[in-house]
Amino acid sequence: MRASLIQIAVNEDESVDSRRQRVAALVREQAGADLVVLPELWTTGAFAHEEFGREAEPLEGPTYETMAKAASDAGVWLHAGSIPERDPDGPLYNTSLVFSPSGEPVAAYRKIHRFGFDKGEAVLMGAGRDLVTVRLPGTTLGVATCYDLRFPELFRGLVDAGAETLVIPAGWPERRRAHWTLLAQARAVENQAFVLACGTAGTHAGVPQAGHSIVVDPWGEVLAEAGPDEEVLTVDFDPAKVAATREQFPALKDRVLGLEPPRR
Ligand SMILES: NC(=O)CCC(=O)C(=O)O
C-alpha cells in the first residue's frame, strides 16, 4: 500500500481559498497512491483561534466539495485532515473528513480531546464522542486528531474496533516535537499498528509548527519521516505486517481489563 502524507505549510500570507486550491492540486498530483493524508485544521491553522469562527464551514462546505473532487480526480482514498465545522444546531467542531477514490464521503470524525486547557480550541469547539474506523481494501483505518495522540485509551478503543492503521492529522508545534515523535512510536508499538501522523509546517499565530510527519510500523520502526518544511512524504507499507506482528508477539492478547482501584 502506498500512502502520501502532505505536510502543508500553514502561514498567514496565504488566504484560505488559495491554500484550498493549492492543496487540491497537491492531492491530484498523488494519483497512483492508495491513501493520501492531510493535516489538522490546515485551512486556518490549528493555533489560529480567531480564524476558527470566521472560517468555519458546514460539513459539506467548500473544503468538503474541493476535497471530494480532488479525491476522485486522483482516484485515491483521501483523509482530508480536519476543518473547523459549523454545526447548524450546535458549537464548532474540529472535524476530519475521509473520502473514497470516487469522491464519496465515507467518514467524519469530530476530535474528542480538545487542546488548550481553558483556552483556544478547548473553549471554542465542542468535543466529539464517537470513535471512527474506515474499512479500506487491505486495512482498517482508525482515526484520531493531534492532541488525541496523548490519550492511549482512545487508540485501544480503535484497536478493539478493528483498526490496523492509525491515521493522525495534526498541527503540532515545534516546541513539543520530541513528544510527537515519541508518542507516535509509542502508539504504534503498544497497539501493534501502523501510525501515519501528518503535521503542518510553517508558522501561524506566532506558533512555529514541528513538521516531521512520521510513518511508524507495528514494531515501532520509523519507515519515513519528513523534515521541518512543506513536503510530501510517500511511503510503501505492507498492511499484512499488523497481523504478522500481533501473531508473532501477541502482547495485545495479554491485556487485563477491569482492574480494581487500590483499597484504602
Ligand atoms: N492542535 C493540537 O491538538 C495541539 C496539541 C499539542 O500541541 C500537544 O499535545 O502538545
Automatic annotation (TrEMBL):
InterPro entries: C-N_Hydrolase, C-N_Hydrolase_sf, UPF0012_CS. GO terms for molecular function: hydrolase activity. It comes from the Bacteria. The keyword Iron does not apply. Residues 1-239 form the CN hydrolase domain. CDD domains: nitrilase_5 (cd07583). Pfam families: CN_hydrolase. Keywords: Hydrolase. Belongs to the carbon-nitrogen hydrolase superfamily. NIT1/NIT2 family. This is Hydrolase. It comes from Streptomyces filipinensis. The lineage of its organism: Bacteria, Bacillati, Actinomycetota, Actinomycetes, Kitasatosporales.
